[in-house]
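In this section we walk through a basic example: taking a raw amino acid sequence and producing a predicted 3D structure, encoded as discrete structure tokens. The instruction is simple. Fold the sequence below.
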Amino acid sequence: MTPVMYTDISGEFPILLVTCIVVGAIIGGTMGGVSAHNNGEDVLKGVLTGAVIGGAVGAVVGLGSVAVMAGLKSVAHKAIADYTAYALYGKAFGGFEDYAVAFAFGGLTKGLNLSGVTKFTVNSVGRAFVDQGTEMLLHSEDFHLGKFGVDVFRRSIAQGLPSGSQALFKGVISGAYDQYSKQGYVTNPLMRIDYSH
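The resulting token sequence is shown next.
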């Protein structure tokens, strides 16, 4: 690698990947800091969390088109799950950081060729852990063991379902848990009738 021309003829140093990670971290850190400032939250936590998420998104871009397409598919599944939870239970859509994490996990799983037990564990336990950590860092929330358990459960079961129904299943479980945690009961999602009385 020549420092003058910034070329790596031997292919030993992944220049594009490192560049994408750095640029992603800078953009993510900036967005995280601005978002934290606008919401009256800890700016340093916002910058650091945004930088990590942005770096992961940058890594997906640096891994190439297959990883990017997998990341976009994961974002689409997240949007379907969020819409399902909203339509049935009125749960709010996830924030920008939730979709960035979805993109990063989907892209990195494919880009790093994860499979078998490793892929299952990363997509169920790892993703649930990162989602909780993001909420804790960006929104000063406490760790919720129940929410974590439900997230691991819904992600674990969804991986065994046909591809077209995974996002719907995750949305139904997420929306029902959200409603239960706020109200202490779940109403009939299709009719919105309260049977708790």
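Looking at the output, two observations stand out. The CA atoms of residues 129 and 148 lie 7 Å apart. The chain has seven helices and no strands. In the next section we compare this with other chains.
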